[in-house]
Amino acid sequence: MSDVSKRKLFVIAVITCGLLLTVASFGDLAISNTMINYNSVFGTIFQTFGEFPVYFIFVLSGEVAIVYAIRCKEDKLFAVPLFLGGFSLSAWQIKQYLNEVSSYSIAALTNIHNNKSIGLANSDAATASLSTKEALILWLVVYICITLLIAFWLKNKSDEQIKKYLLIGIFASLTVWFSLEVNGALKDFWGRVRPYELSASQHDFTSWLHPNGVNGHKSFPSGHTMSGTLCIVFSWFATGIRRRRLWIFGVVYGAVLGLSRLIIGAHFLSDIVFSYFLTAFFIFIMRSLYDHIIEKNLKLH
């Protein structure tokens, strides 16, 4: 993407964000009351499975590190720690994602069993889980399948390509980590009540312009929307038309996941809009940093 295109896209994003946050400032509560549907299958599916990008960017980066370590096996002092680090990162993140999926899935099934709305679930803490044996078997199957797929993708790549993917993985992982840290800090500081946590009178609703301090509520900004927007980062691992398609998919996926959070009653419009554009800004900054520090040096050599 040319510098001119980047500037145009940045201006469009700023204007769009400003307009949507202005609408949300006056219509947050009314929009939520109109759109909430706790029985939404669409909202429940994305609530359960939608956060995969935030985990699988780490997984992909870890798997690339494993392959790079294997190819550098002559230097064991470097290769062994890198291999163990890559394995630990990918294995742990798959486990964390499966824990989240299991928790939301069990909650949804329990709601159905108890004749409650399917989408009602705690968005701030895991409330249910599989047995240790079931979780271990599921993790092992998923980890093996993903490892084989990534190994198949990388098997014909040159050493230079693997090295480039490793560098991209480092910046991609830093992007996810920074987004998680900022999102979590803002959630605690804002202390905003989620739509489904509002009292019957809704007197505890607060505008996104009003931070409440640490109180246990974590509506602003949306974590799921952040995770969905991070799907854009997968495009960094592709080139040509595939990169453009993955970028477009990431942009759309983040917006769709944000919409699902509005419908399921987990977030207000402002939670979603702020999270979407803030995460996109972090992605832009980190990719630009990679281009200036790494990409230019690779071209020079």
TrEMBL record:
The chain crosses the membrane at residues 9-32, 52-70, 77-94, 136-154, 166-186, 220-239, 246-266, 272-290. It comes from the Bacteria. Residues 168-287 form the Phosphatidic acid phosphatase type 2/haloperoxidase domain. InterPro entries: PAP2/HPO, PAP2/HPO_sf. SUPFAM superfamilies: Acid phosphatase/Vanadium-dependent haloperoxidase. Keywords: Membrane, Transmembrane, Transmembrane helix. Gene3D superfamilies: Phosphatidic acid phosphatase type 2/haloperoxidase. This is Membrane-associated phospholipid phosphatase.
